[in-house]
Structures are given as structure tokens and as C-alpha cells.
Amino acid sequence: MQEIIKTDNLVKLYVMGVEELYALKGITMSITKNEYVAIMGPSGSGKSTLMNIIGCLDVPTSGYYELNGNNVSEMDDNELAAIRNREIGFVFQTFNLLPRSNALHNVELPLIYSGMSRHERLELAEQALDQVGLKDRMLHKPNELSGGQRQRVAIARALVNKPSIILADEPTGNLDSRTGDEIMQLFDELHSKGNTIILVTHEDFIAEHAERVIRLKDGMIEFDKVVRPPKNIIINEIQA
Amino acid sequence: MISFNAIKANKMRSILATLGIVIGIMAVTILQTAIEGINLAFEKSIASVGADVLYVQKFEWFGKEDWEVYRNRKDITMKQYNYLANNLQSAESVCPSAGAGGTVTYGEYSSENVMILGTTEEYQRTLGVGIDEGRFFTKRESDGGWPVCIIGMDVKEAFFANVNPIGKTIKVNGYNLKVIGVNEKMGSMLGLFSLDNRILMPLNKFFKMFGTRRQLTINVKAAGVEGIEDTKEEVKSIMMRARRIPVGGKPDFGINQQEAFRQTYDQLTGLIKAIGTAITLLSLIVGSIGIANIMFVSVKERTKEIGIRKAIGAKRSTILVQFLLEAVSICLLGGFIGLAIAFPISLMINAYLLPTAMPMWVVALALVISAIAGIVSGFFPAFQASKLNPVDALRYE
User: Fold this and answer.
1) Contact B381, B306 (CB under 8 A)
2) Under 8 Å CB-to-CB from B368, ≥6 apart: which residues?
3) Nearest to A90 among B311, B315, B318 (CB)
4) CA B115/CA B149 separation, integer angstroms
5) Which of A111, B249, B325, B348 would you label with A188, given CA atoms 20 to 30 Å apart?
6) Contact (Cβ atoms closer than 8 angstroms) between residue B137 and residue B148
7) CB atoms within 10 A of CB A225
8) In B, which residues are within 8 Å of A81 by CB distance?
């Protein structure tokens, strides 16, 4: 299987005055293409720090991180921006849409930064919105959409660049349970279409959607196990 | 697009922030438009002085010495004129002239303080006088001191509004003169006094009417503007001889030319320009600080937005350019408002003060200045925005 994410002994050290705080104390793991992984752990476990590093928003103090063949651990700001644009689709708890822009423009934005022509990016943005079932709402601004619809716009934005991973940070944290379920179903569907999905969550019932759970505690991996065989294996078994 | 959306969102704030720029742009455009008008008026006025004409006189225009020094000089005489005219090689033409204020009467009408100018037939060629109707006087009329005259446009309008003046006889200080021609309209000198309220007549007749002890001017037309400095040197040396001043001595006469007006004028407008530029700069600086301030607020308010943009792939330069464009857009908006206010004012200046028009280059300059103010004021806020850390920016509420 093709390894999308490969980390070796990732360490993140925060220095606050004289106090030193190790948020990550050596994380070694790998994630392959089309995996569905949940990263779990209580607050203070280093879960957010790991997510920031995996999302290329931050760099480790030491250690090695490779994303889709790119050595990210030694990149500068501009290279990180380009990698985020190309390889990562973010879905945030608070949606993080631009409030003054309509859904279409929000989805189009990553393509603007990758330098795509207007005609091409409008077409792709429309496709992405269609994929999350919001084609008829694409000219609405975020404040004219419900929470679930906003998160769908955010998912469309994450998908539009065809990234190598979709990184979702508590994607249902701001939604009621029914809408949350719908969003999780959308993630399941995206996974079945071949996307690699990493969920960062502390909710067990969210993590249940994933096939593999990596649990952090005090900046280290507490356990890393496959909780459910990948769907295609199940299908293979049924067929067998 | 992005920058205009942001401005639209804070319409009132943006417009208020541009006030300094608006005032600066108004100041610079109105000032330039006014100077353009003054320049036009000046050029029109001094055209009558002639760029290639020298005026040999007892006084110097805009002279720097005491009045006494000039007053105590000996008058310029007809003898000196004849000596100069006979010896001068490089000039195209030379003529003497003398002036006095006179009272003109025709029928029951009379007009005081008309400029009466006595000269010779060469005056027309030397000063390039245009004739509207009739003719200039001839050498015979000039030498013989015939009672003929050419009247200026103002005189014509005062006495002969609906009649042909040619052949009519007017009285000047009690002497009868026959009108043989009318001068072309010349306008006024710097808007101060009219050049059309005058009468030209043969100098020999003028001396009989006003006496010979009159200030004499010797008018010298050089062969083109490029030859004027050589001619000036020649006139100077001949006049020194005529007035018996030893070689190397200080001339006791003035050789005046259009240049003197121009220099004085340039000094004056230079001062106006300097003051105007200072006011403009000051308001632009104040305006830029205002814009910078509003941009810092805007960056702060939109920290989260910057975080989102960075997370999905905006580079530092992208964010920098976005905020710079926003500042430039605000300043250009200010520039346009400034121009929109200045334009009707320039029309009012044109209608009531002096003929002028807002030149296109001033409009272009105003917009360029606005854009530069935008870049200057937007740079630091934009730079601050560009170097925000995406993790912290995303967390900002």
C-alpha cells in the first residue's frame, strides 16, 4: 500500500519563559492511501499539535514528517502554504468559511491560490458543491445557510483541490446529533470513493466511523489499532 | 474583488478614513488647475511684450536698486536713438516711443487716462502690431508729424460702437487727430490694465503736443529669439558709447526684455507651488496615517480570515498583496472623491476667476499620488498580516 503520511519520532517543544513543555514526545506512525483514521485523546494529549503538524500548519521541533513523498519537516512558510493548498483539505469544527463570500467563492478559493483559470475553477467548485448536495445553494452566503450546510460547503472546499488527505478537526462539534450523523455519513461516502480521511476527535461515536484509531496520551501514542477491517476487505470476505 | 468587498463592508469607516487623502488630492488638483490658468493668462499677457524685443529705457523692470538711482539717471534722448539706429547691425528693426496719459474727446463723449503713444512707422514691425481695420501710418506721415492716429479696441468701442471710425477726427488733449486705423484687440497686461485703451500717433506730432522732455523708450527687435542675447550685447556697447560711459563702466540705462517678467513670474509661482506642495504633502501624510490606522484595525479584525486563507494555501505574498490592494483601493477611492469635488471647483474658477481647465496630467498625477499613498500606508499593516502564524490566526476569535 502507498504510504501517504510517514512520521518518525516527531517532537514538539513549547518554551514558555523558563518552562519547557513537550507537546509531542516522539510520534512514529504511517497512514496509507484510502485509510480512515481517527486521532483521539483527551485535551492536552497533543492531539491538536499533531493535527497542526500533519496539516502542515506547524513544523515539528525535531523528527521527520513526509506527506505524499514531500519532506515537510524542513519546509519554509511559502512551501508549507503550497503543500497545504495541494495536499490537504481542512474541515474545521467552526466551519471557518469567509463570511462575506458566497458558497461558490468559498469553495473556489483554494483553486485561486493554486493559480487555476477562472473558468476551470468555477466548474470544479460547482462539481464539489454538487458532490455535497449543495448545488442549489451555491450563491448563498454562510449566514444564509444552516450549520450542516455550512459544514458541507467547508467539505466541498476541502475536496475541490483533490487533496491527498482530508483532515477534519471535530467536524461535528458544532452540530446537533442528527446533522452530525449526516455529516459523518458524507465522510463515509467520501472514504468509499477513495479519499484518505483523518478525523481528530474526542468523541467515541465519531471515531467509530473510522477503521483505525490512534489514541494519544501525554504526547505519545497510547495505542494504534485497526478497529474495523477496511470495507473493501469486508466486501472481499462477503464475496468469498 | 476581494478588496472591494472588504471596503464595501465598512463603507462609512473607509470613506471617513480617506478624508485626508480627499483633501490632499483636492488641494493638489485645484492648485495645479489654478496655476495652469495663471500660466495661460501670463503667456497671453506677455505675448504683447514680445519674446524677441528689447526695450532700452532709463529704468529697469523689476530693478533691484533704489528708485533714486534710476530717477537721477540722464534721460534717453532722440540723439542717442539716432546713434543707436545708425550703428546697430544685428537688429531687424528699431523705433523710439514715448507715452503720456491723455484725454480723448469725440463729439459730446470724452475719455480720460487714455495711453497716448508717440512713435514712428517702424513701430508696427518692431512690436508686431496687428491692424484690425484701416492702416498704420507711413514714413511720410511719421517724419512729417501728421495729425493721424491708430486707436485701440477699447477706444473704438467707447466712441465708435456702431460706426466706422476710419476717417473720423477725434480730439486728444485739444489737438485734432484723424483716425486711420484700429489696433487688433490685445487684452490686458496680467489682468491689471488694458492694452487696448491706447492711441498710437507719429512721435513728431506727439512731441509738439506733449513737449520733448518725455521718457523715451528705444524698441529693438532682434533677428529672432535665438539672436536676442547677441543683439542685447551690441545694443549695450553702442548705448555705452552714445551715453559716454567708459568701457568697463556700469551702464546707466536698462535693456529690458520679456525674460524679466518671466523670471519675476517664475519666482512668484514657484512660491505658490512650494506652499501648495507643502499643504498637499501634509494632508497626504495625515491621510496616509489615517489609512494605515484603519488598515491595522482591519487586519486585527480579520485575523481569523487571514488564518483561513493561509490554511487553504495563501502564501505570505498573497496576503501582503491582498491588504496592499485594499489600502490602494481605499486611497484611490479617496482620490476619486477628491477629483470629483475638485472638478466642479475648477469649473467655477474657470467661470468666475480666470480661464482654465483641469489638465489630464493633473488627474493622472492625482491618481498616481493616491496609489502611492495607499502603498505607503498599507505596507506595514499588510506586512503584519502576511506574517501571522496560521495556527494562532485560526484560533483567534
Assistant:
1) no
2) none
3) B311
4) 12
5) A111
6) yes
7) 8
8) 310, 313-316, 318
Pairing of the two strands B91-106 and B109-119: antiparallel
The tens-digit pLDDT sequence of chain A (240 residues) is: 688 999 999 999 999 888 999 999 999 999 999 999 999 998 889 999 999 999 999 999 999 999 999 999 888 999 999 999 999 999 999 999 999 899 999 999 999 999 999 999 999 999 999 999 999 999 999 999 999 999 999 999 999 999 999 999 999 999 999 999 999 999 999 999 999 999 999 888 899 999 999 999 999 999 998 987 766 555 555 555
**Could you tell me what percentage of chain A is helix, strand and coil, using 3-state DSSP and rounding each to the nearest 5?**
40, 30, 30
Judged by CB atoms closer than 8 Å, whether chains meet at A58 and B391 is answered as yes
User: How close, in Å, is residue B389 to chain A by CA atoms?
Assistant: 8
- The reply to whether B300 touches chain A by the CB within 8 Å rule is no
Structural contact between residues B121 and B173, judged by C-beta atoms closer than 8 angstroms: no
**d(CA B4, nearest CA chain A) in Å:** 11
A110 in contact with B at a CB cutoff of 8 Å?
Answer: yes
Q: Residue A97: list chain B partners with CB under 8 A.
A: 308
Q: How many residues does chain A have?
A: 240
Closest chain B residue to A84, measured at CA: B313
For the range B273-280, what are the long-range contacts, defined as Cβ-Cβ under 8 Å and sequence gap of 24 or more? Answer: B273/B31, B273/B35, B276/B27, B276/B28, B276/B31, B276/B35, B277/B28, B279/B27, B280/B24, B280/B27, B280/B28, B280/B31
Say if CB B130 and CB B184 are below 8 A apart.
yes
The residue type at B183:
N
Cell numbers of A159, please? 475536496
Calpha distance A203→B135 (Å, rounded): 110
Q: What residue of A is the nearest CA neighbor of B304?
A: A96
Among chain B residues, the shortest Cα distance to A95 is held by B308
* CATH code for the part of the protein at A3-93+165-239: 3.40.50.300
**Residues of B with Cβ-Cβ distance to A161 under 8 angstroms:** 313
Contact B179, B149 (CB under 8 A): yes
- Residue A18's CB is within 10 A of a number of other CB atoms, namely 5
Q: Which three cell numbers stand for residue A62?
A: 525535531
Provide the 3-class DSSP secondary structure of residue B262: helix
* Mode of pairing for the β-strands spanning A197-200 and A165-169: parallel
Question: Residue A215 belongs to what H/E stretch?
Answer: strand A212-217
Distance from CA of B331 to the nearest CA of A (A): 22
Q: How, if at all, do strands B148-151 and B169-172 pair?
A: unpaired
Does residue A199 contact residue A158 with C-beta atoms inside 8 Å? no
Residue pairs between chains A and B whose CB atoms are closer than 8 Å: 57
**Which residues of B142-197 form beta strands (DSSP E)?**
148-151, 169-172, 175-183, 188-189, 193-194
Residue of A79, A108, A113 to mutate, interface with B, max B Cβ within 10 Å? A113
Facing B5 at nearest CB: one of A57, A92, A100: A100
Question: CA-to-CA distance for B354 and B352, rounded, in angstroms?
Answer: 6
State whether residue A63 sits within 8 Å of chain B by CB. Answer: no
Alpha-carbon distance of B309 to B139, in angstroms, equals 90
Torsion region of B187: left, alpha or beta (phi above 0 gives left; psi -120 to 50 gives alpha): left
Specify the DSSP element, H or E, that contains A188: helix A177-192
